[in-house]
Design brief:
Chain A: Keywords: Coiled coil, Methylation, Protein biosynthesis. Chain A: One of its GO terms (molecular function) is translation release factor activity. The structure holds 2 protein chains of 2 kinds. By secondary structure, chain A is of the alpha+beta class. Chain A is about 50% helix and about 15% strand. Chain A is built from 13 helices and 11 strands. The chains are: A alpha+beta, B alpha/beta. At the A-B interface, helix 10, strand 6 and helix 11 of A face helix 1, helix 3, strand 1 and helix 6 of B.
Amino acid sequence: MIRLLSQLQKSRSPARVTNLVVKMPQIIAHRYNATVTVDQYFEPMHPLLLKRAENLSNEFEDLEKQMSLGAFDQETSIKFSNVSIVLDLYNSYVRDLENLKGLVDIVNEETDAELISEAESEIETLVPLLQACSQNVQKRLLPVLKHSDKPAILELRPGVGGSEAAIFTKDLLNMYIAIAHFNRWPHTIVSEGENSAGFMNEAIISIDAPGAYNILRHESGVHRVQRVPATEVKGRIHTSTAAVVVLPKISEGTEQSLADDERQFSPSEIRIDTMRAGGKGGQHVNTTDSAVRIVHLPTGITVMQQDERSQPRNKAKAFSILRARLAQLEREKEVAEQKKLRTDQVTTTDRSDKIRTYNYSQNRVTDHRCGHLIHDLPGFMAGTKFAELVERLEETEFEDRLQNLIAQENCK
Amino acid sequence: MARLTLNLLRRANAINPQLVPLLKATRSLQLAIAELRWIKQELPRSQWTDAIRKRAQLVPLQYILGSQPFGSLDILCSPGVLIPRWETEEWCMKLVDVLRSAAVSDISVLDACTGSGCIPLLLKKELPALQVLAVDLSDKALHLALENMRRANVTIDVQKVDVLNYNAVPEQRFTLVTSNPPYIPASDFDKPLLLNGVDASVRLHEPRMALVGHLEFYRALARDIVPACHSEGVVLELGYEDQYLETIANLPLNWSHGRYFDLAGNLRCAIAWKNGSSMECLGRLVNENQSHP
């Protein structure tokens, strides 16, 4: 390609006549129709993103200056490496775009047919590369979502549908465990609750891989199932739901993290309830009741844990869940504020909406946010098709976030 | 104690007949469900019936299962030795946190009336630099403490010592003295739970020797053992205000002290430290001025 470009510079004729124009008598009119442009191969980035890239490169210079002056703390260096990765990608995008422009110019202005066909074939190989590169850059140019580097906590609860909903919740739990296995994410079941009839009424699972939150956060919402339940005798298809809440995991929820968790809250902010019936407590009582309930007074969030035999362990788990819920709340607030700026109503990510349907009789999983269908329900439940769906969801979300960013910019 | 209603028994029976005998011990359905789950998790199927039968006779679940979690450790429990309580676990973990952040080097700890060894073992496990000696009078306790030491994979010294007669031991220096001595007055031991007495399960199945005691232990610890060991700080678990007052009355003159309340809002420990010493960090455990639930 470099060879072509240099030839182009040498052979650029002052007349600027394309070979097509030569054949056509009405020069001006047909010249516009015939000329190839960059846009027809490739949609360039939104100007807003280009502006962000500019800001980023300014930031990079600042960071570089700071680093050279000896500011070498962890935060700066992480920021530095993040920015430099994005900039590297951006630079290669700019370089490729320039090349494409050069090739397009050749096609438009060259007279040598052989040179043109060579340029065209080069364009064909370049365009898909450029597209992939630009997608990658654009994704990274959007502001980083809060907590996207964190592990995740998933809370599952049955919705409408009685015992069938409970069975489906259990199926979903198994699906997330399968997904974790498939991706080799370490995971633990934090707690599992059963109602008096022995059906699951709550499950909390922690996926302890950094960044798991960023992938699994798309799972938040109502999941709908359509199938003939195991409990149905007449063979009718039922529709039931289960709700999934995905939280960023802030603290480990172990004895080691407990002291730190407790320091995060002032005593007036939380109330911790434990077994109180024991009168004097201590040596007087040897109960196994180790349940702990934490109430966060400003928000009214209540977390109860009783699965462990050790009370501090229950307390640590409860704190971990409380902190995750608070972090999620904070994030939702942020997202809502950004959304408010937009005039058109966005229907995605609303928790009251069903996000996905699992139709067993048609062997189909439909995601209602991106409209993607997967015709392999067992495969999806086994975790193998999950990545495919996440990719589609991320594309949809990217569009959405870009629109938000544009709206935000317009408001300024 | 709440009476078991026929309705509750019926409901338990409808869920799982195995819950009914457990209710005699737990008095609450929720707890019975939890205990049944722990029994099924930790014991082989062949022992379930026997475990449930024993539990109905108010044998502590910790003896039936054979262990109790204590911080990061799993402490073995067997009849004849006091079961570690959550209150002890709570202050012990806070103590670890305080000692760790104070970063005082070269600390040695004496734990008197160690029982299962839970306190010294957790301290040693979390803070490996400590020098630890655990003492008790009961042979069963000493035996179990040694077994727990092997299980926790740490090394501490264990000796047979009568705390009420400390002169018998060779003099040694200990920076910190911890203890969970017997602190239920004999008069309270036979009272029901609601009158500040003890749980029937405790009275029937836990060793009286580890439970019944009063001011004499605090006097001995503060007046005899602290000076003999040249200690700079103490953390003593207790259950009564008298015991706190007895402790501070017998401490050397230039010491400061404060009360520690547990999560349930009960007075649980006497904390004291020598002014100007490295153990002043223990002051952070004192929470008597904070609001209590």
